[in-house]
Amino acid sequence: MIRVVIADDEAPAREKLERWLAEQPDMTVVASVEDGLSAAQDIERLHPDVAFLDVQMSALSGLQVAAQLEPSSAPLIVFVTAFDAHAVKAFDLNAVDYLLKPYDRERFASAVQRVRERLRSHETGAAAVAVGRARSPGCERLLVPDRERLQLIETASIEWLEADGNYVHVHTAGRAYLLRRTLQDLLTQLGDQRFMRIHRSTAVNLGSIASLAPLFKGDYEIHLHNGRALRLSRRFREALFARMGQ
């Protein structure tokens, strides 16, 4: 049975998908929600095979949900949108398909068939989401695990990032969060407008830097506004200085 999550902030649109999916003998809807944050939480909790995501929703858009999914467990994505301009972005994210509202049964059947074909070919959709993340601009908000749920934090509140194998410690002023991601993958998602790598295992929010002090052999010590000191290795020194106008 193909397990489906639906996310759309319009009740009639959700109900339409629920009815038409219920007519498919090999599909079952395991969650139907009205916002992106709930969709991300249910995807994390239920591990569906496919998610039908409205492009524009509160808290997180469908595009943001897709861009922030864990690549190894991401479901296939079908975007649902009333705005044709979003279609190009959807395919940038390598979505299985997109449904342009108001879609008819024939167009819906075509999208469902695409899902079946992708699942039969044993493609998990993880690579598609990873490619989409690499092409997407830096996000303004990030989903992080907080005990038994997911929480949405502003990326501007992140002060620095610390790699720990296949995990990253995300340090904010109030606390640190642990993500099962590589540092490079997370930096790709966050974009290079605000964050820069300063060491093989460390990246910093440029806005958090208070001062720099030379050490030895070309290394520097970066002092953050919160008093934390981080090592800037010679390898990343010139790129950081260039960004800071030194």
How do the helices and strands line up, and which of them pair or pack?
Layout: E1 2-7, H1 11-22, E2 27-33, H2 36-46, E3 50-54, H3 62-67, E4 76-81, H4 86-92, E5 97-100, H5 105-120, H6 126-135, E6 141-146, E7 149-154, E8 158-164, E9 167-172, E10 176-179, H7 183-190, E11 195-199, E12 202-205, E13 209-214, E14 220-224, E15 229-232, H8 234-244
Parallel strand pairs: 1-2, 1-3, 3-4, 4-5
Antiparallel strand pairs: 6-7, 8-9, 8-12, 9-10, 11-12, 13-14, 14-15
Q: How many individual helices?
A: 8
Percent helix range:
25-40%
Order of helices and strands: EHEHEHEHEHHEEEEEHEEEEEH
Q: Largest sheet, described in full?
A: 5 strands, parallel
Question: What does the model show?
Answer:
The chain has 246 residues and is of the alpha/beta class. 33% of the residues lie in helices and 33% in strands. It is built from eight helices and 15 strands. A five-stranded parallel sheet has the order 2-1-3-4-5, with helices on both faces. A five-stranded antiparallel sheet has the order 10-9-8-12-11. The protein is elongated. The N and C termini lie far apart (59 Å). 36% of the residues are buried. Residues 124-136 have low confidence and may be disordered.
